[in-house]
Amino acid sequence: MTSSSSTLASPRPEADRRRWFALAIVMTAAFMDLVDVTIVNVAIPSIQRDEGASFSHIQWITAGYALAFAAGLITGGRLGDIYGRKRLFLIGIGGFTLASALCGFAVNPDMLVASRILQGAMAALMVPQVLSIVHATFPAHERGKVFGMFGAIVGLGAVSGPILGALLTEWNLFGLEWRPIFLINLPVGIAGLILGRKFITESKAPHALKLDLVGVVLVTLGLLMLLYPLTRGRELGWPTWGYVVMAGALVVFAALVAYEKRKAARDGSPLVELSLFKVKSFAAGIAVQTVFGVGLGIFFLVWTLYMQVGLGWSVLRAGLTGVPFSIAVSVAAGMSVQMLVPRFGRKVLQAGALIMAAGVLIYIWEAERYGMSIASWQMALPLVVMGAGMGLIVAPLTDAILSEVPREHSGSASGLINTVQQMGNALGLGLVSVVFFGSMSDHLPGPEVGPAFVDAFQNALIWVAVVMTAIFLLMFALPKRPAQHVEGAETAGTPGITPLDKAPELVG
To answer: Which of 485, 489, 439 is nearest to 460 (CA)?
Structure first.
């Protein structure tokens, strides 16, 4: 917003057809982010081979993005509320596009890791604005349809990311090997930047908010102190300083809690609304979301390494093998929200955790029985079972967590849900060095690499099964039947959203 801009009464959204163009633009940006998370995993072995990346580099290519994304989500949402959601969306998509170019033209693994961290930070500015813009642009009676479309985009991103990554890597366009998985973001990002300036309407929070910079620093510092030693520990021989730094992370998080309490009492604008944790269902749900993220972070990276490095499969074969999983997630997610949860409530989520654990155990059994000769079609059964279980959890979990949250805190609560999921994902990626690489030797003769990866994969899956069991138990603290959640709760990941009928300030 320039200094010459004037605050104008906005036309009714129903009469403004431009909102559908704005929806297409922000949905495309959300799709770009979702694909970028999944597209990288399938190309990891190619990156390792072409760039000579160490296992630590591999973990940071994925964990660095997740960490930067997690640390910046709440901050990104708050910045949009303060300075304008359109403005932050454009900054985010522009920075994401630039970071994608830096990833695509990275000259060594260190530059790729740094570029991925920048990409995650820019996604943290861009993604929270997506649903904020939707909420400020569409009237209440249209939002159900719009959020249904958003759910379809999430499912499409989950399905298409691995396949697109496999095809781009396999095709080796212009001799660029894996680099097109990042460079494909350039035309999409540039188009989003140009069209977003034209069609998205600016909006802000109706009340002045302040940015909690100290909270941002403490959250980021604590996460780095926890994850860096965990990721590098095995490679460095688990030095004493690593344990000291990880213990120090707990001190930083304790300082964060103390500071946020004082911040809330002083000016009412803390980064983390600690009073939310007094709500039993929210506290339990946050624990579920965090632990779930840990399990997914472990599984997806070791699964890719198992297929491509351990079994020696091509990137395309590995990508296509995951299609049954993605389809099962999408189908089960739709059924859980529309049919099952309204009838059975919390039991659906708990069944999802047990079903996913069963799929993991089937996978362990198959990996043991078939060893190096396992075929893609033999993996379909455990992947469909796991996908069905995951779909039963991911779709209704947010509603279950938010169902007892006071209306005035629904935006902050939604932001925390997304943040802890990404934190859990980053923690899971850090734990890969322990549960996967920690079970094999650093220097293996060629013939022993495959069997070692198969054994390490089974070891990692045991941990994933334990995580699913823990999730099942934690879910007993969720409400048996999620109530009609408060207005604004559907705006997951958008701290500070105000319902449209409360007349937010819209800037022309």
So the answer is: 439
Per-residue pLDDT of 185-235, as tens digits, reads 999 999 999 998 888 888 776 665 677 888 888 988 887 888 778 777 777
- Mean pLDDT, rounded, of the chain: 80
Residue 258 has which token pair? 């103390």
Q: 288-327 as b/e, with b when 16 or more CB fall inside 10 Å?
A: bbbbbbbbbbbbbbbbbbbbbbbbebebbebbbbbbbbbb
* Burial call 54-87: b when 16+ CB within 10 Å, e when fewer: ebbbbbbbbbbbbbbbbbbbbbbbbbbbbebbbb
pLDDT at 12 over 70: no
> Residues 265, 455: contact at Cβ < 8 Å?
no
Task: Name which of 454, 327, 333, 325 is nearest 379 in CA terms.
Answer: 325
Start-end of H helices in 11-54: 18-51
Q: Is the pTM of this model over 0.85?
A: no
Max mean pLDDT range (60-64, 172-176, 219-223, 303-307): 303-307
Provide CB contacts within 8 A for 75, sequence distance 6+.
124, 211, 216, 271
Give residue for tokens 């072995």.
Answer: 45
Burial class (CB in 10 A: 0-12, 13-18, 19+), 335: middle
User: How far is the C-alpha of 376 from the C-alpha of 439, rounded, in Å?
Assistant: 25
- Tell whether the model's pLDDT for residue 261 goes beyond 80: yes
